[in-house]
């Protein structure tokens, strides 16, 4: 029973960290967002969208975030978690985004994120999303 209780508290702590991360992400404060990522963290985005898809290290993710934020009226893309699954060091979150863009379009996408959390920091993120919606809004 002790291992189950410890695992439950680890999963709850990881879920809390990811929830806080999503709140901070929604502010558009790039440096605060990056503060949740381990120095060697990676962020992978599905699809074949130039400048967005593929695996990025922390510095490349900083550059992508800064570029995306610059295209929004508020400087941020708001993330709203819908459903959670947490097991060991993995947190999976179904999420909805919303942002009004400088180009007059609305970015309102659905995602499935998989976060790997270790030592209180996000080690990796996999982002599955509607790439056609992203392409239509940003490009």
TrEMBL record:
Gene3D superfamilies with a match to the protein in the record: 3.10.450.50
Coiled-coil-forming residues are none
Please list the residue ranges annotated as the SnoaL-like domain.
18-123
Report the InterPro entries cross-referenced here: NTF2-like_dom_sf, SnoaL-like
The domain of life is Bacteria
For this protein, the record's Pfam families field holds: SnoaL_2 (PF12680)
Q: What is this protein called?
A: Nuclear transport factor 2 family protein
- What organism is the protein native to? Rhodococcus tibetensis
Task: Give the source lineage, highest ranks first.
Answer: Bacteria, Bacillati, Actinomycetota, Actinomycetes, Mycobacteriales
């Amino acid at each position: 029973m002790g291992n189950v209780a410890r695992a439950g508290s680890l999963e709850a702590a990881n879920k809390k960290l990811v929830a806080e991360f999503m709140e901070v992400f929604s502010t558009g404060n790039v440096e605060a967002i990056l503060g949740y990522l381990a120095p060697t963290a990676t962020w992978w985005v599905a699809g074949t969208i130039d400048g967005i898809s593929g695996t990025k290290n922390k510095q490349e993710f900083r550059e992508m975030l800064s570029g995306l934020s610059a295209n929004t009226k508020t400087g941020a893309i708001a993330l709203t978690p819908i459903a959670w699954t947490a097991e060991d060091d993995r947190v999976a979150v179904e999420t909805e985004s919303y942002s009004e863009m400088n180009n007059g379009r609305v970015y309102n996408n659905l995602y499935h994120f998989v976060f790997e959390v270790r030592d209180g920091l996000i080690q990796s993120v996999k982002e599955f999303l509607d790439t056609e919606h992203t392409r239509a809004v940003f490009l």
